[in-house]
Design a protein that fits this description.
The protein is an alpha/beta fold. The chain has helices at 38-42, 48-53, 74-91, 100-103, 110-129, 158-177, 200-221, 245-254, 267-272, 277-287, 313-325, 347-374, 376-384, 391-397, 401-411, 422-429, and strands spanning 12-13, 23-24, 32-33, 36-37, 44-47, 95-99, 134-139, 182-185, 191-192, 226-229, 239-240, 261-266, 290-295, 334-336. It folds into two domains: 32-374, TIM Barrel (Alpha-Beta Barrel), CATH 3.20.20; 378-429, no CATH class. The longest helix has 28 residues, at 347-374. The protein binds manganese (II) ion (MN).
């Protein structure tokens, strides 16, 4: 046992009447909603990078947090793992996620990185035999080290592509060994800073080829998890090739990967792309590529990817409404890609941030479930399209311009506009709590 979370009890559900800061008010993991427990619906996951590797830096200054595991040796990496698994236990979260660079010391070359990763993965494997917390997904950090400054798969230098591909192999192996449910590719530097030095067509081809290799390797080793791409439009790059769900779908179709790869959708990235979270989730569901979510929120004034913990129940409700309509998570889950503000220095801040986020998500999911069960919203939506279910609607879709032209003349078709009833629907949605 470390003494980092000294005095903080295991967090249990006490309900909305409780006055205790260290309890759940909405998240009762055993509560059954739509035939499934909240634990199974929400599939919460702690993000290793934000909770244990983030030092508190922002564009104006560096480290504010002072954690006993900060440093670059194996002893500290193991202390970090000990503390992480203690937090998983305090929160009773079913999952966690990591990048290679979050968990192992940085080596001087590829073989040192690999040796360090293998040693810490061995340590994780041992810890996981004593823990209820499983791996939601693993990934490779192909963006922080200076070698990736011009991209990983999309780098103009083939040797960087090779280093990246070899690193992904080690991270897929690690994810497979730990029984991960998914493997994520987030192309933090797969884009460009200026078109003046960029061959966009070639870089896109490289990204497609890398993804094909990842999918081939997944099948080769018998990894049953899902391969996920995480869309993000830009920042710090000017442009990323995996801009949003629609762009990623076009990319997957282009490289014949639409049946192999799904998306991991982040609230903050959806906002950066000029969409709402529910837009991205609904589109992924309609396209059949919904995989998992990175739950967080962006600050709506500062306008950049602030990765804050979610705290807005009505927003989260609309997101889980789309998740439930997709049939819920299969391999995916709710990963808190959320970090403390740099002034939140105390160990208890790490716990309280997750308690609040888990409660907000639970309240949102319960409201979404009521909305879906009640069916009023879906009924009103279906009514709006009812014409398409008639013989007339079907005939129009199966017709051609000439025949439709004759029909409009013959039947003197002269449509009357019908209200979209937006305010009525907004009032309705706000009734569910
Ligand atoms: Mn983000």
């Amino acid at each position: 046992m470390t003494d980092f979370f000294n005095g903080i009890p295991k967090i249990i559900y006490e309900g909305q009447e409780s006055d205790n800061d260290f309890c759940f008010r909405h998240y009762n993991p055993d509560e059954i909603v739509l035939g499934k427990s909240l634990r199974e619906h929400l599939k919460f996951s702690v993000a290793y990078w934000h909770s244990f590797a983030f030092e508190g830096g922002d564009p104006f200054g560096g480290q504010t947090f002072d954690r006993p595991w900060f440093g670059n040796d194996m002893k500290q990496a193991k202390l970090k793992a000990d503390t992480a698994f203690e937090m998983f236990n305090i929160l009773d979260v079913p999952f966690f996620c990591f990048h290679d660079a979050d968990v192992r010391p940085e080596g001087n070359n590829f073989s040192e990185n690999t040796k360090n990763l293998e040693e810490i993965i061995e340590y994780f494997a041992e810890k996981m035999t004593q823990s209820k917390t499983k791996l939601l997904w693993g990934t490779a950090n192909l963006f922080s080290n200076r070698r990736y400054m011009s991209g990983a798969a999309t780098n103009p230098d083939p040797d960087v592509f090779a280093f990246s591909a070899a690193t992904i192999k080690t991270c897929l192996d690690a994810t497979h060994k730990l029984g991960g449910k998914n493997y994520v590719l987030w192309g933090g530097r797969e884009g460009y800073e200026t078109l003046l030095n960029t061959d966009m067509g070639r870089e896109r081809e490289q990204a497609g080829r890398m993804l094909q290799m990842v999918v081939d390797y997944k099948h080769k080793i018998g990894f049953n998890g899902t391969i996920l791409i995480e869309p993000k439009p830009q920042e710090p790059t000017k442009h990323q090739y995996d801009y949003d769900v629609a762009t990623v779908y076009g990319f997957l179709k282009d490289f014949n990967l639409e049946d192999e790869v799904k998306v991991n959708i982040e609230q903050g990235h959806a906002i950066l792309a000029g969409h709402s979270f529910e837009h991205e989730l609904a589109l992924a569901r309609e396209l059949g590529i919904f995989g998992s979510i990175d739950m967080n929120r962006n600050d709506y004034q500062s306008g950049w990817d602030t990765d804050q913990f979610p705290n807005n129940i009505p927003e989260v409700t609309l997101a889980y409404y789309e998740v439930l309509k997709a049939g819920g998570f299969q391999n995916g889950g709710t990963n808190f890609d959320s970090k403390l503000r740099r002034q939140s220095l105390d160990p208890e801040d790490l716990i309280l941030s997750h308690i609040g986020a888990m409660d907000v998500c639970a309240a949102g999911l319960k409201a979404a479930a009521k909305m879906l069960e009640d069916g009023k919203l879906e009924t009103l939506r279906n009514e709006r399209y009812a014409g398409w279910n008639t013989q007339n609607g079907k005939e129009i879709l199966n017709s051609d311009l000439d025949a439709i032209y004759s029909k409009v003349l013959r039947e003197n078709i002269n449509p009357e506009p019908i209200s979209g009833r937006q305010e009525r629907l907004e009032n309705l949605v706000n009734r569910y709590k």
